[in-house]
Design goal:
This protein is an alpha+beta fold and 270 residues long. The protein contains seven helices and 19 strands.
Length: 270
Amino acid sequence: MKFIKKSLLILTLSVFTFGAAQETITNESVVQMVELGFDDYMIIDKINTSDVKFDASISALGQMKNAGVSSEVLSLIMDKSKQNTMSKTGIYYTDASGEDKLVQPSVFSGANSNQVAQKLVSGLINAKQKAQLPKTQSNNVIRQSQPEFTFIFDPSVTQVDNMQNNQGGDTGIFNWWFRMASNPNEFVLVKLTVKEKKNLREVITGKSSWITSSSGIDPKYALNFAIEEIEGNKFKVTPDSLEPGEYCFIYQGQVPQGRENQSVFDFSIQ
């Protein structure tokens, strides 16, 4: 009877494997196999012969352990999570269909406000530097108020020549931000102001007068987000609940020689 049961499980696994050749194994897939009664060696074989996308955060591992996943399988999941299909550096979010999407950087233009007034009163009025993005809505539309983002870095590569790696299939974008930075704390999350009449979005990135000048995002405009390390170079980032509107992550760290920080990672909450 035991032999028959095991044979049926092997047959089920074979159908599972060949009937869904393009399937990616996830945490949920492993829990499902455990619930169906698969032995560890069968689950391990399935993981080793499939594309995988595992969440190896402490909370996710705890959930799988509570679901009956063995320590041996959990150890393999932790190792395989470093080889996820989603391995390129950058910022990712999960869309409504459950697919991971890369947040492509959007190039902004700079603008100063109060320039005329500043000249008339000899600089007594501050001029505001603004980053302006075309259109009133981002192409990255997220339909939940508390999305989860995955930041993936490669801080081991810092030479300029090695920063020329194309990102996301777009040959015009070089992904140096995630080679200079090592964690999400080097980014700031802000809400963009929408200018309907001008068909753009903007954020204040600095102020200047004849006496003083400052650059960067004012801390009072920075929005909170939680950071959980998944692996050494991979982090889960969860902002506080966001109301509908336009937002972006802006890199605030060191800019390498030969580069300009003229891009933001924008998204829309609907």
